[in-house]
Write a structure and sequence with these properties.
With about 400 residues, the chain is an alpha/beta fold. It folds into three domains: about 140 residues, Rossmann fold (3-Layer(aba) Sandwich), CATH 3.40.50.720; about 140 residues, no CATH class; about 70 residues, Orthogonal Bundle (Rna Polymerase Sigma Factor, Chain: A), CATH 1.10.1740.10. The protein is about 45% helix and about 15% strand. It contains 17 helices and eleven strands. The strands form two sheets. It has a seven-stranded parallel beta sheet, sandwiched between helices. Helix 3 links the parallel strand 3 and strand 4. The mean pLDDT is about 95. The structure holds nicotinamide-adenine-dinucleotide and magnesium ion (MG). Nicotinamide-adenine-dinucleotide (NAD) binds next to helix 1 and helix 9.
Amino acid sequence: MTRRISIFGATGSIGRSTIDLIERDPDAFEVVALTGGHNVARLAEQARALRAEIAVTAHEENLDELRARLAGSGIEAAAGAAAIAEAARRPADWVMSAIVGAAGLPPGLAALETGATLALANKESLVTAGPLVLETARRHGARLLPVDSEHSAVFQGLVGEDIAAVERIIITASGGAFRDWPLDKLAEATLEQASAHPNWDMGQRITIDSASMFNKALELIETKEFFGVAPEMIEVLVHPQSLVHALVGFNDGALMAHVGPADMRHAIGYALNWPERRALPVDRLDLARIGALEFRAPDDRRWPALRLAREVMAEGGLSGAVFNAAKEAALDAFIAGQIGFLRMSEVVEEVLTRLSGDSGLIHAEITLDNVRAADDMARKTARSIIETGA
Ligand code: NAD
Ligand code: MG
């Protein structure tokens, strides 16, 4: 039986890894929608190769080029955020949510409303609106599967277990590009240095977020939302080899570790084949050759983002949406060369401090409109802090 699938963020790192897997078994899938951003050539090429029904670019100014590149193929072309959400309403069995940033939330919600299984790489969906995402899935009988490697690892560790027997969940972090840098050098870290990951090959934004640990900060919140556990039960462990992705600790003292290659096609493939396990084209680890696995406690001075995530989990409500949007604005400014590497967490902390007193904003009901309002306010506040330097 062929399955209808859509990929949001098809042109990115996760999107391409997803396509790599489905191309190996072309008769099993019928591709509904593929979406991308500025890389229209790649999007059109993917849509033609997979014979998608529709290809959508996020940017209206790219529509003419997309149409031209799809001419004669019979594939529909569309552009803009509304067209992306519209494409997510087309019936599909399995939908990959792999847009980067808060823009991934609306299409993910739209796909859940159709009852589709949503493979969630876009961690920002759970960070900005966890309760809304889970409630939407519940109401429409849709299933949510984790794709982030740590969360896929925890999910696999929980198969056949009772969540009530879980004492703690440990997610690992490579430590990113600056794990071993002297602390006093961090302020001078360049964009190029922050964009190089020691173990994983990922999109630029998540790679920089790995160096700052904003990625792990988002993942702490994602863990709390996805598995519904108390923040105190979740730990971060620095693990330079990136082979143990997470550990689940049970009330009898057992720790179940998930060990696998640093290749996202494992977690994507698990979500694609769930509830079965099928063979995947990833490396088989030779632990005798690897020899040693190291673990260290994370240093809050090096990675203040982890402390900020704990504050966000304690505050709840829309503080995750504020945190994520402030982080995105600070990251934009770092990429544009407007602020230094360490300034990112200072900006985010300042936004959280300024907006946390606004309980009308933070503790409003978690709806898409209120998430957008909190997101807008946080970006504006971050930009004003960046521009005035205060
Ligand atoms: P990427 O930058 O490689 O790709 C992002 C995709 O989103 C591209 O298709 C791009 O065109 C699209 N996009 C960007 N801005 C958009 C917008 N405003 N509207 C619509 N589409 C837009 O990113 P990635 O590394 O593939 O990451 C995708 C998501 O998966 C992120 O949420 C990331 O945190 C998560 N994730 C990635 C990895 C990884 O290994 N790359 C691992 C775990 C989780
Ligand atoms: Mg991860």
